[in-house]
Amino acid sequence: MKGRSGENDKQRVEQRSRAVAENATRNRRTEQEQVAKVRQYEDFVDKRLKPDLQNAISQRDALLAQRKTFTDLAKSIHMLEQQKLTKLRIMINLGSEVYAQAEVPDSSRIFVDIGLGFHVEFTWQEALKFIVSKEEMLAKQIDSSTGQIASIKAQIKLVCEGIRELMNLPSGDTS
Predict the structure, then answer these.
(1) Looking at the domain that runs over 25-166, which CATH code has it been given?
(2) pTM of the predicted model as reported, rounded to 2 decimal places
(3) What is the pLDDT of residues 43-81, one digit of tens each?
(4) Are the C-beta atoms of residues 84 and 74 closer than 8 Å to each other?
(5) Residue 104: left if φ>0, alpha if ψ -120 to 50, beta else—which one?
């Protein structure tokens, strides 16, 4: 009996050692898979989401600059109306920050850049109406762009949370 018991013990020990070795191999494979997955998620954030975020921010900044230009134009038109100026002496940017003095004999009509390189001649009142509608359109585009930025930031946060969970790190949320 003792011989069989020794053989059974020896077989059990061998089975346990094989199981431990298989678990170790499986754990190494799992760790390697986790590291690969983490790298994949990090690459997605760095190569896709962050550039998308930068582009969205740049587009919104361009829209904000355009809105400021129209707001400044409206202020200038209101100032011209209040002062009842018909003749103007102004400095004109010729390009490359080179300026020349110019005289405008009749300032009752102005040219406004309406986009795509087109300029339209407006009276002051027509220009103000156009500016109001353009500012409304720009406000909607800015809101949409801000929503897109928030969405991308949420996606980045979600992926970072997934990475944190894969790495079994404690939550960075302190709230």
Answers:
(1) 1.10.287.370
(2) 0.71
(3) 999 999 999 999 999 999 999 999 999 999 999 999 988
(4) no
(5) beta
